[in-house]
Design brief:
The chain has 202 residues and is mostly helical. It is 73% helix and 0% strand. It starts with 12 loop residues before the first helix and ends with a helix.
Length: 202
């Protein structure tokens, strides 16, 4: 039996982080090629809501990526509380959007938003490269909780995908950002929790 054994390279967190970083860079370049980045927003011309929304989604994405990468090599002491707190922080965004809708225009901004559906769909397709990288990484390892791993992959990829696609979005209002830029993350969480575990089981 021992003669059939072959050495396997150990999984390093750093290598997974490099893989995901490359996926994000490819995604941003793809968004720039297809839509063109909103350089006015990148140069400080956007509202504070633009910075806050993308900042919170970036934190959520990074926290979920870290947890997903660690799940490939489970060990005693691994903690996955970071994404929970990041999700709680990001939940403030749609809450603020709904409060604004109720208190001001009673939903007309949501109905008259020409970029809403585009940002929702764009945030989902911009998650593809990151999701693929994370699934590939987890399949190289041995996640003991495929359901939780799938959830983190879905949240991580769509949060970062929404940030990447959001760099091309010229709308910086709290209603648009809080609803249409967060909606892909909700969809990603559902898809990741229920569709991805079968790909991660070993």
């Amino acid at each position: 039996m021992a003669a059939d054994l072959q050495p396997v390279r150990s999984i390093r967190f750093r290598d997974g982080l490099i893989l995901v970083t490359l996926a994000i860079i490819v995604t941003i370049l793809g968004v720039d090629f297809i839509k063109g980045l909103w350089f006015n927003g990148l140069s400080g011309g956007a509202s504070a809501f633009f910075v806050i929304t993308n900042g919170l989604l970036l934190i959520l994405g990074c926290a979920s990526v870290s947890s997903a990468l660690k799940m490939a090599a489970p060990r005693v002491g691994n903690s996955h509380d970071g994404p929970k707190w990041a999700m709680a922080m990001a939940a403030v965004l749609p809450l603020a959007a709904f409060v604004t809708l109720i208190g001001h225009d009673h939903g007309t901004s949501l109905l008259n938003d020409p970029y809403g559906l585009d940002c929702f769909v764009g945030g989902l397709w911009a998650a593809a490269a990151t999701a693929g990288a994370l699934v590939y990484w987890l399949r190289k390892g041995a996640p003991v909780s495929p359901n939780l791993a799938g959830l983190h992959v879905g949240v991580a990829s769509t949060a970062l995908g929404s940030v990447a696609y959001g760099l091309a979005c010229p709308i910086d209002g709290v209603v648009h950002l809080g609803l249409w830029h967060v909606a892909p993350v909700v969809a990603g969480a559902i898809i990741g929790r229920y569709a991805l575990p079968r790909l991660l089981r070993w």
